[in-house]
């Protein structure tokens, strides 16, 4: 399933990116590692959902510029 229409990022790509990590990455880190940039921010909740399922955690870090941008523009929320 496509989670980000702007960058054509699938759920499988997100899972591959986070698989094997000890520490939960931020949305911005995931986008950067996939070679993508934040465009509209509407994918952030989709990415957060996949990461939460993987880590069993309800908190996402927002300590990078992309996540901070998304949060300031009202696209980022805690589900």
Structure explained in plain terms:
The chain is mainly α and 79 residues long. The protein contains four helices and two strands. The protein has helices at 11-18, 27-33, 44-55, 65-72, and strands at residues 2-4, 9-10. A two-stranded antiparallel ribbon has the order 1-2. A hairpin with a 4-residue loop joins strand 1 and strand 2 (9-10). Helix 1 packs across helix 3 (44-55). Residues 75-79 have low confidence and may be disordered.
Attribute tags:
79 residues, mainly alpha, 2 strands
Summed up, the helix count is 4
Taken in chain order, the helices and strands follow as EEHHHH
Helix content: 40-55%
Q: How many angstroms does the end-to-end distance come to? A: 20 Å
Q: What is the radius of gyration computed over CA atoms, rounded to a whole number of angstroms? A: 11 Å
Uncertain stretches of 5 or more adjacent residues: 75-79
